[in-house]
Design goal:
With 309 residues, the protein is α+β, with helices and mostly antiparallel strands. Strands 4-3-6-5 form a four-stranded antiparallel β-sheet. A three-stranded antiparallel β-sheet has the order 2-1-7. Strand 1 (62-66) and strand 2 form a beta hairpin. It has helices at residues 15-22, 73-86, 96-120, 126-140, 143-152, 157-178, 198-209, 214-221, 240-248, 280-300; strands spanning 62-66, 69-72, 184-195, 228-233, 258-259, 264-277, 304-306.
């Protein structure tokens, strides 16, 4: 199969999601307390006879502001811890700057998705949140097991509940974006003769001009697949110049030599339908592209202030 455009997912790998799903909790992701921070003990303050003032509200320290809404600094710090934990055992790890950038980008995207869910009218209710936590507790076996899991994953109760809510709302919005991709779209079925050098491609083109069957040459040049590309929609193939040529040709026609970054291609179109069922892989690719396009637009049109290095 000709290389396709790889699906790009959120770079952040959060262990919480997998653990929650394995425990029977749907569409969740999480946050916690930095274990390196010792608890502070307030010092006693002597009372005086003077009148006291009402305490003023103190803003929660934020790692970033997304359209005025804060991403708590504690949430960010604990996501960094969880991300580091997920890298345990890997020989090559990203440095601290890369980790911080990955985490803050992920949390900004999560916030944007949750904000859009709210605009559309969806929010996770307290009752549904509690059902999610109850299911997780049952999956882990006991409340004590959940408490241990929270501690081991750098959580306190309040931040855990916040993270579950955000994750659920972001997941709901991702589903809405994915649903915009129909089951059937315009697609082409094609095959190719692929050569690593221009000389090889030119020999194939000369052979085709002399009457050699395209299929025969395709098998000679690609004995593992016969050059078969199968059915594919726009935005699926890895090399856009090849895809563009395939969609521009009539059925039964073949292209001239097309150069890509990996070599030289001659395309023959076998079929072209205005609506053909997507394969699972192609559907996931288009859904991922739709999500990435949505996020790019949302970021460009949002006020985002990052307050961590």
């Amino acid at each position: 199969m000709f290389p396709r455009k790889p699906a790009t997912f959120f770079a952040l790998v959060v262990l919480t999601t997998a653990l929650l799903l394995s425990a029977g909790c749907e569409k969740t992701q999480t946050p916690p307390v930095n274990p390196s921070q010792e608890p502070t003990i307030p010092t006693a303050v002597a009372s005086t006879a003077t009148a006291t003032q009402e305490p003023t509200a103190t803003a929660i320290p934020a790692a970033a502001l997304v359209n005025g809404e804060p991403i708590p600094l504690s949430y960010f710090n604990n996501e960094v811890w969880r991300y580091r934990d997920s890298l345990a055992g890997q020989d090559v790890k990203p440095d601290d700057v890369e980790i911080s950038q990955t985490v803050i980008n992920f949390l900004i995207e999560q916030q944007l998705l949750a904000q859009e869910a709210h605009k559309t009218g969806y929010s996770l209710s307290e009752a549904d949140l509690q059902v999610t936590i109850d299911n997780l507790t049952a999956g882990l076996g006991s409340q004590d097991a959940l408490t241990d899991w929270l501690t081991n994953n750098h959580y306190d109760d309040a931040e855990f509940r916040m993270a579950l809510t955000l994750a659920s709302e972001a997941a709901w919005q991702r589903d809405q974006i994915s649903a915009t991709i129909p089951e059937e779209v315009e697609q082409v079925r094609a095959r190719q003769i692929f050569a690593l050098t221009p000389e090889g491609a030119q020999r194939a083109l000369t052979s085709l001009a002399s009457g050699t069957d395209f299929s025969k040459l395709a098998w000679e040049y690609s004995p593992e697949s016969g050059g078969e590309l199968g059915w594919f929609p726009r935005g699926y193939l890895l090399y856009p110049e090849v895809e563009a040529a395939a969609f521009s040709l009539e059925v039964g026609a073949r292209s001239e030599i097309i150069q890509s970054e990996i070599g030289y291609h001659i395309i023959e179109v076998q079929a072209h339908e205005s609506a053909h069922p997507l394969t699972t892989d192609a559907r996931i690719t288009l859904q991922t592209k739709a999500l990435n396009d949505w996020l790019s637009t949302a970021i460009a049109n949002s006020q985002i202030v990052i307050q961590v290095p």
